[in-house]
Amino acid sequence: MPRTDSALPSPTDVSASTEQGAAPVGPVRLGPDAPAALRPAAAEVRTGFWHARREVNAHTSIPQGPALLESAGNLHNLRLAAGTAQGEFQGGYPFVDTDVYKWLEAASWQLARSGPPADGEENSPGPRELAAEVERIIALVADAQQSDGYLNTWFQVRKNGERYQDLRWGHELYCAGHLIQAAVAHHRATGRDELLVVARRFADHLDSVFGLPGSGRPIDGVDGHPEVETALVELYRETGERRYLDLAGYFVDRYGHGLLGGEAYCQDRVPLREAVTVEGHAVRQLYLLAGATDVATETGDAELRSAAERLWRAMTTAKTHLTGGLGAHHDEEDFGDPFELPNERAYCETCAAIASIQWSWRMALLTGEARYSDLIERTLYNGFLAGVSLDGESWLYVNPLQVRDGHTDPGGDQSARRTRWFRCACCPPNVMRLLAGLQHYLSSTDAEGQGLQIHQYVTGRYRGDLDGTPVTVSAETDYPWHGAVSLTIEETPWERPWTLSLRIPQWCHEYRVRCGDRTYDQTDAPVTDGWLRLERTWAPGDQVVVELGLEPRLTAADPRVDAVRGCVAIERGPLVYCLEQVDHPGGGLDDVVIDTARPLAVRQRPDLLGGVTTVVATGRRRAVPDTGWWPYRSADAGPAVAPSGESVELTAIPYYAWANRQDGSMRVWLPTS
Amino acid sequence: MPRTDSALPSPTDVSASTEQGAAPVGPVRLGPDAPAALRPAAAEVRTGFWHARREVNAHTSIPQGPALLESAGNLHNLRLAAGTAQGEFQGGYPFVDTDVYKWLEAASWQLARSGPPADGEENSPGPRELAAEVERIIALVADAQQSDGYLNTWFQVRKNGERYQDLRWGHELYCAGHLIQAAVAHHRATGRDELLVVARRFADHLDSVFGLPGSGRPIDGVDGHPEVETALVELYRETGERRYLDLAGYFVDRYGHGLLGGEAYCQDRVPLREAVTVEGHAVRQLYLLAGATDVATETGDAELRSAAERLWRAMTTAKTHLTGGLGAHHDEEDFGDPFELPNERAYCETCAAIASIQWSWRMALLTGEARYSDLIERTLYNGFLAGVSLDGESWLYVNPLQVRDGHTDPGGDQSARRTRWFRCACCPPNVMRLLAGLQHYLSSTDAEGQGLQIHQYVTGRYRGDLDGTPVTVSAETDYPWHGAVSLTIEETPWERPWTLSLRIPQWCHEYRVRCGDRTYDQTDAPVTDGWLRLERTWAPGDQVVVELGLEPRLTAADPRVDAVRGCVAIERGPLVYCLEQVDHPGGGLDDVVIDTARPLAVRQRPDLLGGVTTVVATGRRRAVPDTGWWPYRSADAGPAVAPSGESVELTAIPYYAWANRQDGSMRVWLPTS
Lengths: 673, 673
What we know:
Chains A, B: Residues 1-34 are annotated as: Disordered. Two copies of one chain form a homodimer. With 673 residues, the first copy, chain A, is an alpha+beta fold. In chain A, 32% of the residues lie in helices and 19% in strands. In chain A, α1 crosses α3 (97-114) and α7 (172-190) runs antiparallel to α8 (194-209). The longest helix of chain A has 23 residues, at 49-71. β21 of chain A pairs antiparallel with β15 (553-557) of chain B, so a sheet runs across the interface.
């Protein structure tokens, strides 16, 4: 049973035992010489919206992982590879090991933020049980590794050890990448190196195998699914071994040269440095971009940085759904063409949302610009969070923006209905690892030690390091339900001015910030690059109160987004809203129009979906007369099915909370006539 | 080189040598006791629109077939199965034999309509060469057949003769179906039985293998891809063997009972008799419905007929694109949900258009209602004909209604660019067989011998049989470019009244029909069930002149078709129009809006695309300012990108003719603001 915020002591998100100064125990710990604008700061989430989601993750999703990995056969496969079990390989994909690795990463971040259990604390399973599970599974992984460092159960068991014969589909380096990320997480979080040793051996093996012709390495090639690039940069960061960074850079630059057959699907149509838009399989593109950004961050490669900035903009301007979801095609899980953003067939894989957050965070650090965290916020609250049910026990692989009346669900991984686990179970442990490490995406300090930036607003504490001196800012907020955030300076250098930078969200057009005797608003505030910058000589106890206007709003799209012409969406703060069938008895949702002239009302609904704020609009139902057998008619004849006078109250719920009640239709975009 | 209409003698479409009375040499030759409303009549196409398309089919597409089947390996596979060649099986699908069978069917109809070559006639390759190719390939097929009648090269060569182990994916009965259809065509067209013998042996084998538990047959099962049902009914019609009809009926009714795992994809989710809408893989659904309608037509099964009528209506009201195209999803080639009719991702497989025409023709005969031929006309001129290039040498597998500016084409079978041949080459020979047999979808007589119905207007001759007495009506028209059709009674019974029924197209709201001293129009005409019925005692030389109003028109969709909200399409007569990039230099198509208040102009363009009528509209280009990195904005702020004042002449070409010039964007539906 998840503990409630009030009844039990809060866990400490920043584990004192593993913190080194203020450097956060999380992903993207930049190398000491990385010429990035920002460095991640530590944060903890004490109560509130994300705390609740993370509690479910900690107490339901993550603890259920080992049993699900056992029943799906992932752990069995490791035993087969180790020779400690008999039987058939389980699962139909060569990348099933990554489900284990992503779970290990999630559990590692969880161990870091949980800290040791307090005496008598009920924590089911508490850090001890979780730590034991992690140790047990790491041992399975270590046992499965071959003597030269290679590790992939599919190829060891199913393919008789044939390696690197099918880089396009084999996912061997993709698996290595997730193993490395898990190992880095485990080492950072616990200080233990059982898994890091395994990962380094694999990475060393890869470094002996892959390289340019003439490098002495036998294979000049890349993996059909990028992932190892960003992982290798993290391994460099954790170990200081420059050759891991070099290997990552080699991989990043070998895409787009036809080594995989030249298809966009595998990111092989055009080199990243020359690309003008994101394309192909969305998750592959995004992981590759995360890796390329990592390389640019550590090396200062300006051309690579420029490509990343260009592609991020191409993605957000023309290939991103309102929810932050990415990937327009089910077929080949492809990004689709510019402004091709369908609703019912939006693919918007949960993993793509996660990859987008990971990439954007790297861009935020590299550039210092707030818009990257604008997209992170939007994605976190919408396209990402919809991927897991409120109870943490079932999942969506795809995240459509519409389910039609009369929808026939195909079932399977790409169902519009929540599923307990997937045949291709990439998304659930990916959600777990992001939620478990979420505190690492919230704040930063700038490279010059001039200040602390707050990227996301939570109740908790942000802690940075300014030239060796800690600064700590605590925050209280009921965001995103309420727009007020109270910030208190807790630690600050003595009589040394520094800048507290607050992200003014891109969606926010009315706000007020009070700081001492000054009040700023949207007409008069020191905002640059999306940051409201407060340079002060701070004293402990100083307060800053941010009030972000949360009036619900109607949003329209660029007219080139054909799928939503003549429609609006309801948004409030960072939340995208949707209608669900269950709230609208007496008819479907496909015959509803919204009356945009009528006001939107806000209702606090603690009873609903774990406690949400709904937005209530006024609409009408179209009468749908029998138009014969052909649904197309003369445009001169006027609408064949005029809206009737029947007024309907439209109750919009946050998109992230959809599909937690009975099956039915859903829509984000609402026709206006 | 295709011969032109004027320079060379016209071929005779109805081959005197193989006609038996007025019964047409074509598909769907109803059994003598079939309780259908109509029976197909014979027709010939002498000049004009369809004649030109059929000439290309006869002189380019069909003659190129054998070489393409040889280079793709289909013929090689037959030799492998026969043991007369060595090597690897070619092609990655278990249904590659059907490409051969469909080509044989096409060539057979072609032989029937060509008749013997006139002395000295240049006919490249003429009937003699074509007949020799047909004989040669039939011999390959016969050689490949196993002693008990089984024939499938994939299973014989690749699967060591393992049969019926994988009915869901194996396509063994699907292949049998196409073989049977080819054999029936060959027998009807030429009177020869070399292929019919092969087909009957296979059908007899199937009849010994498949049946209900307790029937003495070892397997109670159906094929994952319906097709054999309609073929078996045709075999019954050709041979009089009732057990083929019974076997077809058995198969029709065994879908929907979980024998294939219960998925909609394979038509196994729900029995056809209980289904409320079309679903799953579009071609599978349509072939099954054609077979079911065949069974209902021959047996008088009222429940099955009722299901077919219900499903046809469910399809046309909510799951048919404006072009007649069917299948909304690339993924699983699925019908999609009601009113889910995307433009750029419309699948609209060419084979689905063909299957729709085949099914609707059976419905037209069964019921006597003209709307089925309305859909046939729409599909023929649009969704079907777009599948083949104007030169008959390249093909579209999918037929989208939009190609975006900035489209990245994936290549392969599902490309929006024409392809010389496909890896899965189902569509090209399917187009060939429909075009070669098109004359059989044009006219009918009613079961009571009361009259002749003209379903489609061509220049040529319609010939029916009224209780043993021939009636012949000749027609002259430049349809669909001009709306006038002049009909002349050539043969008629002496002083016996009969009814000439003319289909008034569903799209046509203004027309005039002159018959002797009477003139009818849309305000006053004896129209029932879509037929204008002229009952007269006719004399040779009597004339009827039909004038169908061809004013270009703007068409809107049911508002539940979200994909085209706020858009119109240009249509003229049976033709759907589209814009192509090549006609609109200086910008893309995604920033164009049409001004619906301005008139549409019609231009005859003999120079363009083999001679077309274009429709010219007035539009504007939207200015597209930089809206920042996020394409969504407050709905209150008004359009961020208002149409500029720049007026653009929009030149619309018939949809069937798109993708015959340079690659670029295309769209059927045009935003109005």
